[in-house]
User: Fold this.
Amino acid sequence: MDDQLYLGIDPGHRGGAALLDVAGRITDAWRWRPGHDPMQSYNNLYNYINSGYKILSYIEHIRLYPRLPLPVLLNTQNLLLNAGQWQALLDLLRIPYTQITPGDWQARYGLTHWRKRQARIITLARGTSLPDLTSPLALARHLWPDAPLQSQADDGIAVALLLADLARRDHQAPVAAQAPLPLTTTSQRRRNSRRRTK
Assistant:
């Protein structure tokens, strides 16, 4: 089990990748920059596999919504290209991967609607020294103080670290014990309560 590594991938425009060992320590982390040569990531991962490591990966799942405005669609198209390149690398290297939606991994870390909460907390806490753990970057900096997360542009590495940690925790413990309860809508809860009262 000591030869196991966990890879997290944020395929975004300023995405990143991170490798954690079984204890959750950072083995490697790097940015996926615009115009990035995928062979650099391929060679990096190949060197770990060639050294005898087994790698398990979580990659953020990307969805395309066709009714979005054209500039957003073009940005999403680049995101899909990045995700496709990552999946091709993982397939070529025979690294098993799981696609996880942003909503799922953010819920596991309590980061749902983090952008709205971050703005509210920063507004309320102006002038105080409250820690801001409402964003993936702030949480990753807190969990891995020695991580290469010097600037806001490193948010892709932060997401990759959180995904790698999630892969590690899910692999080491039963997923059912860590997965959140299935969410139901208000209308579903009303229907279920009506059925119980009949």
